[in-house]
Design goal:
This protein is of the alpha/beta class and 356 residues long. The protein has 15 helices and eleven strands.
């Protein structure tokens, strides 16, 4: 039982709440007396927080004990905080968005420490790059995690995404092109071998940015979607001229837009990472999903069983970006990956540069 009618919870419920990132003095008291729960627990645990324009994510891992062993994943969490709301127009962080984000960051920091992470790495991408007042976010990160906020460049974002998205792929399937559609930017990265990016382009198009620029009605009007796709198409053509995209044998699509579109295309009863990871997404399916989503209201999209809370408002723009990338590059299908920059942050923290 988790508690009693009088509101007194069992000690294990307090402890579990602390492990989930809750602020619980009783849970902390229990932890001091019972940990380590498993005597075989190894040290060296690390945590990474990916603070994106749309979402905030946490990954806590334990390194392998011997060469060839996989990382042991202890936590992988995601919340849509929309840190980048309004940043494209104002160049500043919205106070409500910052408050939402800091609240989640604080919980993630508690969760990482409860899971005995020895280091916490926090990296922020497009919204923080564009915000003139990002020092407010940096101060909150330092206060809650004890770590300095890394506001990474588009080039660094691309390299880390490539590391996380391809590190476990077969080198025989290369060269690879990784497509990372974020909230504020989209990265296109090429590399001959898993884990090692060679060239990249970071573009100022993302699901949040393009939604705020173009999709002003609910559902969006056809002319709004047409204008969005026209700008995205032009950006994709420019990126294709800067990268050897034609050399890629395998296109890998990472991040929430691609994984959510695939979940809908597969008709899953719920979002299931195991069914989605390393599955093939056909361009025709992306086009059909986009048409379906564009005809829905925000409320209807939010009610889809595959939709993460908060993503429905920006998924139309994200799916449109994905369609235009696949069309513009002449790609018929992409390998969908649940691993991405978040995994790259952890691998890089642990000194995994990818195979030579």
């Amino acid at each position: 039982m988790g508690g009693a009618r009088a509101g007194v919870k069992c000690l294990h419920a307090h402890y579990a709440y602390r492990l989930a990132g809750g602020e619980d003095p009783v849970g902390a008291w229990v932890a001091e007396r019972v940990e380590p729960v498993h005597p075989e627990e190894r040290g060296g645990r690390v945590a990474a927080i990916d603070q994106g324009t749309n979402s905030c994510r946490l990954l806590v891992v334990e390194p392998p004990q011997a060469p060839g062993e996989p990382l042991r994943e202890l936590a992988r969490d995601l919340e849509i905080t929309r840190l980048g709301a309004g940043v494209d127009a104002t160049g500043r962080l919205d106070p409500a968005a910052l408050e939402r984000t800091v609240r989640v960051l604080a919980g993630y920091a508690r969760r990482a420490r409860a899971l005995r992470a020895e280091r916490i790495r926090v990296a922020a991408t497009s919204a923080a790059r564009d915000a003139r007042d990002r020092a407010r976010l940096a101060a909150a990160v330092r206060r809650h995690t004890g770590a300095a906020l890394e506001v990474i460049s588009g080039e660094e974002e691309a390299a880390l995404t490539f590391l996380g998205g391809t590190s476990e792929l077969d080198p025989a399937d290369g060269p690879f092109l990784v497509v990372d559609i974020g909230g504020g930017s989209t990265e296109l990265v090429v590399g001959a071998r898993p884990g090692r990016a060679a060239r990249s382009v970071s573009t100022a198009m993302g699901s949040v940015r393009m939604t705020e620029r173009y999709l002003r009605h609910d559902p969006p009007r056809p002319e709004e979607l047409a204008d969005l796709r026209a700008e995205v198409g032009a950006i994709v053509r420019e990126a294709a001229e800067a990268l050897p995209v034609a050399s890629a044998r395998t296109v890998v699509a990472v991040a929430g837009t691609a994984t959510t579109v695939q979940a809908i295309a597969l008709g899953l009863a719920r979002y299931d990472p195991e069914r989605i990871h390393r599955s093939w997404l056909e361009r025709g399916d992306v086009e059909r999903v986009l048409e379906r989503l564009a005809a829905m209201t925000n409320a209807e999209r939010a009610a889809l069983p595959q939709m993460t809370p908060g993503r429905g408002e920006v998924i139309v723009a994200g799916a449109a970006i994905l369609v235009e990338i696949l069309r513009g590059l002449g790609v018929e299908r992409a390998l969908v990956s649940e691993t991405d920059i978040l995994d790259g942050l952890v691998l890089d923290l642990l000194g995994y540069p990818g195979p030579p």
